[in-house]
Amino acid sequence: MPTPDLLDPKKEHTLVLVKPDGFRRGLTGEILRRIESKGYVLKGLKIKQADRALLEEHYAEHRERPFFQGLIEYMSASPLVAIVVEGDRVIEGVRSLMGTTNPTLAAPGTIRGDLGRDWGTGQVENLVHGSDSTTSAIREIALWFPELEYHAED
Predict the structure, then answer these.
(1) 19 is in an annotated binding site
(2) Cα–Cα distance measured from residue 94 to residue 97, given in angstroms and rounded to the nearest whole number
(3) Which residues participate directly in catalysis (predicted)?
(4) Burial class (CB in 10 A: 0-12, 13-18, 19+), 96
(5) Which CATH architecture best describes the domain 5-150?
(6) pLDDT for 15-58, tens place per residue?
(7) Any catalytic annotation for residue 129?
(8) Comparing C-alpha atoms, which of 74, 128, 131, 71 is closest to residue 99?
(9) Residue 43 marked as a ligand binder
(10) Interval 49-107: pLDDT, tens
(11) Does the annotation list 139 as a binding residue?
């Protein structure tokens, strides 16, 4: 049985998802280029067709919100790319790179501002997800990358 890959607990990590609209539009390379050009390091990457159970656990805090079912349907409609990113202040940095949730309002120079738009579907399709806190990042990385572990210090 292979041993799990290890993440350094002294470094900050975040989960980034290139959502189905970004994957479908062929924007994964551009999104990765922007992340790496900031000096962040990719520690894990997989293309995945996410099932409802995984997505419902990932978005559990939104379960009672009116948009929950539409979000799950959108996120499970086609493959996405899950990425673990490492770097100093990477959570804050990646969220800044992504821009605000609504792509119409996102600033130029951000992923959503430059590449996103409102398609008039009623479902916000905003290309990317990034963990919003250290606690969320640890939970989300464990969910999407169970093969990765933080190693204990000697």
Answers:
(1) yes
(2) 5
(3) 129 (pros-phosphohistidine intermediate)
(4) middle
(5) 2-Layer Sandwich (3.30)
(6) 999 999 999 999 999 999 999 999 999 999 999 999 999 999 99
(7) yes
(8) 128
(9) no
(10) 999 999 999 999 999 999 899 999 999 999 999 999 999 999 999 999 999 999 989 99
(11) no
